[in-house]
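User:
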Amino acid sequence: MNPIFLFPTELEARAFCGVCPDAEVVISGVGMAETAATIARINATQSLEGRVVILAGIAGCYEHRCAVGEVVEVVSEVVAELPERFRQIYRVEPLTHLRGVASNTVSRCNVASCGADVENMEGAALFAMARDMGFRAVEIRAVSNVVGDDFSKWNIALATENLAKTLKKYAE
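Assistant: Predicted structure:
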């Protein structure tokens, strides 16, 4: 598959880099703008057409729809904070055997679920760029918290460890 692994932060990538030091890992930065800019920058130096880009990181789950530590594949994204008349649902075909979930891409925490299972800050940018640039997008998230929980309750260590173990299968 020879994927490019895109992580929003070094913290989210650290455990994976420890188990797959030869994988192609890029830190994109947090949020939709940083993710889109990073993908454009990568494409400018190496065509992404026909490639697989795996966006990986942590996510919050809504109303205990996922377990903290669970690793899921996001198969639909919507920018939740846009007025409903402007919202576009981005969908991709699953590439893994992980449970497929719907996600809100948000720019702030605690946005209403509107039917989504999880929230993150980058996914819609990945799916929009993939649609327009001709690469395969896969988004794999590990749940670190329940949306609304205080940051002190997040279990980032468990989430990133489980994420690394899961991603290792796709790096080989």
